[in-house]
């Protein structure tokens, strides 16, 4: 592969007709890949399109990898164009895919095993046609034996369906809980009550806890608890940020399964409008969350369903203060959202669940669990001094 002049214009004009066309597409895809890198630094209210460029980062990356292969097959020096842009994005790429050869060693006496899981109300409504989902989730938690587990989309029944607290207390070493219940619904038949929200269960006594609803989205929230591990107090946050809330028509458009949604008439809000609103809402929610994190006088561990990718503005705002456990000690592809849509079917890289921690802490053995018992995978790691 040789070229007489490295000037990009000569790289283009020395090509034949078809290769010139491919080079134009290559330049366009490389430019879009570069824009996706910038999405983490541009506030959605400033320029919304950057958020969409960032969302599609894996696709721009895949296209540029294709062009590298294309030019190598034809023994053309033009492969360096995409290669250079990909090298510029090594940091964004590391947030989706990691290889950790040597795991740090953390002593059990000075560390905690943390688990975070969006359980989709323990499959209360039997979305995935598996009536045993709740029992299998409890079994998974018992097998993994976390010291702390943070639940998003949490559910507990009182006198109806099932009492998750009872199951966890009986089948795990978790004996303390902090609930942030946003919705209490009376059962239509009988005196039972349904509790919806989020929760943190702990092996250690909870010294203090606080709840924080988001003003711009009442169904999303965060909370924290303080626990004492030996002589160290650690603050554990649990957060669930706003999603896009796709409608029946949206699932039909993007190729997902919409059989669990009823078709609504007269819905004039487009996917773009809903996504734009979600990006702006999340940016405001992250601002509120991180201000509270910054107030903490104790080391912080944050479990969060961010509902956004590692290339997003929301993720970047968190990573400026806290360390991403997956980036430090993860392995393989970090995808956590497994809902069915055309994007997941083509390229399953929807990493939207995270465990972050204060810089003075360390992590080890980050795991994205394989069990499919919700529309999210559980994640866990050890965090300690």
CATH homology superfamily name of the largest domain: Endonuclease/exonuclease/phosphatase
CATH hierarchy, class of the largest domain: Alpha Beta
Helix content: 25-40%
What letter string, H or E per element, gives the SSE order? HHHHHHEEHEHEEEEEHHEHEHEHEEE
N- to C-terminal distance: 51 Å
CATH topology (fold) name of the largest domain: Deoxyribonuclease I, Chain A
Indicate the low-confidence ranges by residue numbers: 1-6, 247-266
Give the overall average pLDDT: 86
- Count of beta strands: 14
Please summarize the sheet with the most strands.
Answer: 6 strands, mixed
In the residues, how many domains can be counted? 2
Radius of gyration: 23 Å
Describe, in plain words, how this protein is organized in 3D.
This protein has 385 residues and is an alpha+beta fold. It has 2 domains: 8-94, no CATH class; 108-384, Endonuclease/exonuclease/phosphatase (Deoxyribonuclease I, Chain A, 4-Layer Sandwich). Helices cover 35% and strands 26% of the residues. The strands form 3 sheets. A 6-stranded mixed β-sheet has the order 4-5-3-2-14-13. Strands 6-7-8-9-12-10 form a 6-stranded mixed β-sheet. The termini are far apart.
